[in-house]
Design goal:
The chain has a single domain, classed as Four Helix Bundle (Hemerythrin (Met), subunit A), CATH 1.20.120. The chain is built from 6 helices and no strands. The protein has helices at 3-8, 20-39, 42-63, 69-75, 82-100, 108-124. Helix 2 packs antiparallel against helix 3 (42-63) and helix 5 crosses helix 6.
């Protein structure tokens, strides 16, 4: 945050916590992610990561500005500590690879770690999962 942001109250970060209605919806939708993880098949794990990434994006929409998930992540740099921020980016890139690269099949534990990273970041934004 720069001098003018401090002086005039401007910032790309509006709040570090999502609203109660959004929090409830994310919590409800997270149950699907958990079910997919329990099933544990390759397609279920991929869908769990895709859904988790979408839920993080829904939370970020209320916390930071940005036209896309990537833009919102860039604007969320100050919301998370450096390590968590980097692991969130890695999880999002993994999701993108799953969606856009034919035949991309990461090990199951990599997908599960990415989902856990996203869960931690959603919790950091005030949603109890």
């Amino acid at each position: 945050m720069g001098f003018f942001d401090l002086l005039f109250g401007g910032s790309s970060v509006s709040s570090n916590v999502v609203s109660l209605p959004t929090s409830r919806k994310i919590k409800e939708d997270w149950e699907k992610v958990q079910e997919l993880l329990k099933l544990g098949g390759p397609s279920q794990l991929r869908q769990a990561l895709i859904t988790a990434d979408k839920l993080l994006d829904n939370a970020l929409k209320e916390v930071v500005a940005g036209e896309s998930m990537g833009g919102r992540l860039k604007n969320a740099r100050d919301v998370f500590d450096r390590y968590q921020y980097q692991t969130i980016w890695e999880a999002h890139k993994l999701r993108n690879n799953l969606v856009h690269e034919v035949g991309f099949e990461p090990p199951h534990f990599v997908i599960k770690e990415a989902v856990a990273t996203i869960k931690d970041s959603i919790v950091k934004l005030g949603v109890s999962l």
